[in-house]
Specification:
Elements: E1 14-21, H1 24-43, E2 48-55, E3 62-69, H2 78-85, H3 89-95, E4 99-113, E5 122-128, H4 135-152, E6 156-164, H5 166-169, H6 174-179, E7 188-194, H7 198-201, H8 204-212, H9 222-230, E8 238-242, H10 262-268, H11 270-273, E9 277-281, H12 287-296, E10 302-304, H13 315-329, E11 334-338, H14 350-364, E12 369-371, H15 384-394, H16 400-414
Helix pairs in contact: 4-8, 12-13, 13-14, 14-15
């Protein structure tokens, strides 16, 4: 929605951006409230120019809504604060539907391109920080060369760069007390409007970064930015990535050998920076490379998933699996999660999975092992109860302390539950 005298919002110097997630049962009510009351109410406030809303791709029920204003002072003005501190009954109810909310006020510091006749159907939004001490040197590059490079990308209509107004963003209001969200931790926001779906447009931010920054110095690293954004959520603990490579497409999960990909290995070090764990899914031929990764980052806890996935059940295959498990178990920062054995033994019984479970526990030790399910995948082969009953049967002669570690306390410690 726009005001008639500012159809494009091209003169806007400030932005209020709000990310929030809604449960399925609340989506219809949220859209009705936003369309019928909220947006119309906001754009009538003096200084407001444009209001828009986008669905976040790949995140069910998550939306980005934003308003453009003439200046940042509009978002600290009496008319706007009066609206925030005197919400309507409908707004009071609607704000209880908001989850994982992030709201920031931004001031425009650079732009290129022009808004089209119609609203851009797709928008890439990326919140990020520059390293301490880099802002003064790199910011002019981002506001000039980097934005220009973005606008040269195919399908890009307009690119803008914003910097957070921390003082206004932190103002506490009656509305904010209801939804309990606050400012995000990133200081900069890039808005890139594109004309085509992401599958056709590619990643313009990554392409522009590679073009402007010939080396990694100064380059906006999306991996670090994404991890930093995830860390805003209190229950975020780590990353899981399916790295299995195999010549048979049926068993292959990854598009390349990430364990030997220089950039991927370098980015793995970010997990230590953010105090995150890594859930590792591989086959036994990859375990030597995984051990080298564990040596390279000894402070990062690596959890080997699905008992190391013993997919070859021949005498040779089981022997090679055991050797790989011993190689990983020798690393202090690697433990194993015992699960997923039905994936290669559809008709499994307690007796067929018993050797793998006992071998894994013997190799890694009780202190570095824990039980898990592989639901909903396990549902193809058995019931949830059958799996845990099997674990119970197989460890029936273990001590109470050992069983407590395997069934709960090790997981609680590693994942900080």
């Amino acid at each position: 929605m726009t005001k008639s005298d500012h159809k494009t919002g091209s003169g806007s110097r400030c932005l209020m951006a709000f990310w929030a997630t809604f449960e399925r049962q609340d989506l219809h009510r949220y859209v009705e409230w936003y369309n019928c009351e909220h947006m119309a109410e906001r754009v009538l406030i003096p200084g407001f120019q444009t209001g828009r809303r986008y669905v976040v791709e790949g995140e069910n029920g998550r939306f980005l809504q934003f308003y453009e204003t003439e200046t940042s002072s509009v978002l600290g003005s009496k008319p706007y604060l009066d609206a925030l501190n005197n919400p309507t009954p409908w707004t009071k109810e609607a704000l209880t539907w908001f989850w994982d909310s992030v709201r920031n006020i931004y001031e425009l510091i650079g732009s290129c391109g022009k808004p089209g006749m119609f609203t851009a159907p797709y928008l890439t939004a990326l919140r990020f920080n520059l390293e301490d001490g880099q802002g003064g040197n790199l910011l002019p590059i981002y506001t000039n060369k980097w934005l220009s490079a973005l606008c040269e990308m195919r399908h890009v209509l307009r690119a803008r760069l914003y910097r957070v107004d921390e003082e206004i963003s932190k103002i506490m209001t009656s509305e904010r007390k209801i939804y309990s969200g606050g400012p995000g931790g990133q200081r900069y926001l890039a808005f890139v409007e594109i004309s085509n779906p992401f599958g056709q447009a590619g990643d313009p931010i990554a392409k522009a970064s590679e073009q402007v920054f010939q080396s990694d110095h100064g380059r906006l690293d999306e991996a670090e930015v994404l991890l930093e954004q995830h860390c805003q959520y209190a229950n975020f603990r780590g990353i899981r990535h399916l790295l299995n490579t195999h010549e048979d497409p049926v068993f292959n999960y990854a598009d390349q050998d990430y364990l030997n990909h220089a950039k991927w290995v370098d980015n793995f070090g970010l997990l230590d920076k953010f105090d995150l764990t890594y859930d590792l899914q591989i086959y036994y031929p990859q375990m030597q490379s995984a051990a080298a990764l564990a040596d390279l980052y000894p402070n990062t806890i690596i959890i080997l998933n699905h008992t190391g996935m013993p997919h070859v059940r021949s005498e040779y295959g089981v022997k090679a699996w055991r050797e790989g498990m011993r190689t990983l178990a020798a690393k202090d920062n690697v433990m194993t999660k015992i699960s997923g054995l039905g994936m290669f033994d559809y008709m499994w019984t307690v007796d067929t999975i018993r050797p793998f479970i006992l071998d894994a526990i013997e190799i890694f030790g009780v202190e570095k092992s824990m039980f898990a399910s592989n639901f909903p995948v396990d549902k193809l082969f058995s019931s949830y109860k059958a799996i845990w009953d099997a674990y119970d049967d197989i460890t029936s002669k273990f001590s109470d302390d050992e069983r407590h570690k395997l069934f709960s306390s090790n997981a609680e410690k590693i994942y900080r539950i």
